[in-house]
Structures are given as C-alpha cells and as structure tokens.
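thought: fold this chain, then report.
action: predict
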Amino acid sequence: MTTPHWTLARRVADLFRTLPDVEAMALAGSQVAEEVDPSSDIDLYVYTTAQIPLRDRAAIVERLGARRSDLNLRFWDLGDEWVDAGTGIEVDVMYWDTAWIEGQLGRVLIECQASMGYSTCHWYTVRNSMVLYDRSGWLRRLKEKSAVSYPEALRRAIVAKNHPVLRRVIPSYLGQIKKAKQRNDAVSLNHRVAALLASYFDVLFALNRVLHPGEKRLLQKAAEHCAKVPPGMVQQVEDVLRATSTADESLVARVAALLDGLDELLLEEGFDPDTSLPKVQ
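observation:
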C-alpha cells in the first residue's frame, strides 16, 4: 500500500527496528481493518525483550518530526503518541513485552480465562495485525498460535463471568443502574451503563465465537461479523444510550429489554440464563 498512513508506519518501523530490544513490530487498528476515516491514527505495536529507554524513543520521534508529542504515557500500557509534522497523522505506539503477550494469549487460549469485558481483545490484536518487522520470526510464530478455533471452554467461561453481573446477582449492573437513577446520579448512571455494555458485547461476541475487536464501532462490527444477534439489537442499544444521556424514565425498561434479547440468544445457544451455564442435556 502507498497511502500516507502506510508510508509513515513503515518509516516508524524502519527506525525502531534498529534498537536491539525490539523483537518485532506490527500495525493494527483501522489501517489493517480498512476502516480509515479522517480521524484515523496509526496504531503500532512494538514487541520488546526489555524496556526501551525513553531517550532512544524520543530520538526517533525527533528524527521523524512531530508537531506535538506526549511520550512515556503510562496511563494504560506504556506508550508514546505524537502528531507527525509532515502529514498531521497521529501516531500511537504501544510497547508490549514479548513474555507478557505470550502469557496473555496463553491465559485465553490455553487456560481459557475470561475477563470482565473485552476478554479476547489481545488475541484479536495479535491475530489481525500486520507484521512490519520480525527480527527472528517470533511474531510470525505467535500469530500462527493465534490462528486457532475459538475454544469452547473459553466461550463458556466468558458467558459464566460476564452474564450473571448483567442483572442476576445482587450487585448487578442493572441493579446499580436502578439505584443511580433513583439517586439522580448521572455520573454513576453513565459508568454502570458503560460497564453493562462491555460485558454485554463480551457475551455476544463469545456466543458467536467472534474475537472481541475492542472499543470502537462495536455495533457495526457485531452486525457485520456476528451471525446471531438479538432482534433489534442495534436500535435497542441506541435507545439505551439516548435514555442514559438524558436520564430518561424509560432507561431501566430499555436496559431490561436489551438483556431479554441476549437471554433469548443464550437459550438458542444451549445456555440457561438462570445459571449462565450450558443446559444439562
């Protein structure tokens, strides 16, 4: 490809590959998924065997040229971000330790452990990224390990972890939404609805044996890649979000209707919504 984004991504990779602790680099996000829009950035993953000194990373950014840069960000994964001086494209570089990401894949693919939302995001990133540099073939081998079928044990684990908290247990998200609505607590209301949707989509993607793609375009990706979705899901989610933004009186009922649809899908897929486990045959 010869787009400005791809050209810049390869320039960045060519400079990082000279550092001895860089094992591999990959391009992910909208550039690989072909979902580029005017606000799209470049998501680069740098796989390292040891942390790269800040001075070396800063030297690369200086050599590339930046209108603005925020380096050594530690709010989430270690990362550097800058706006390229020549193109105005935002570059987002994340640094992942090789042993750590191997452990993350093992946790999901071998141990079949679920998370509260986004259970298979790291698997998705590795599997769908484009290799830009691979010093010893390590990333190619990791991608080969990621190119496996969805483990049924993982599917069940994601449902068992994320489904009960939607509304069945005492501290459920729906229960917390009701309390926040009664208190007229808009901040808590938004927080709990966001958490509910994170677990909702984790269950939905798992039921379809589809890897969770992350935070962006979830409705679009669910509609495109999930063969089985609750009827009217897109409209229901949009209605919940509108009701949340205005603290509308219909919010609790709309959330309940959204979860009813998911429970019906669980039944169709052989799960008991009352236990979040497969039904006994």
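thought: worth noting. Strands lie at 22-28, 42-48, 66-73, 79-84, 90-97, 130-134, 271-272, 277-278.
final: tokens above.
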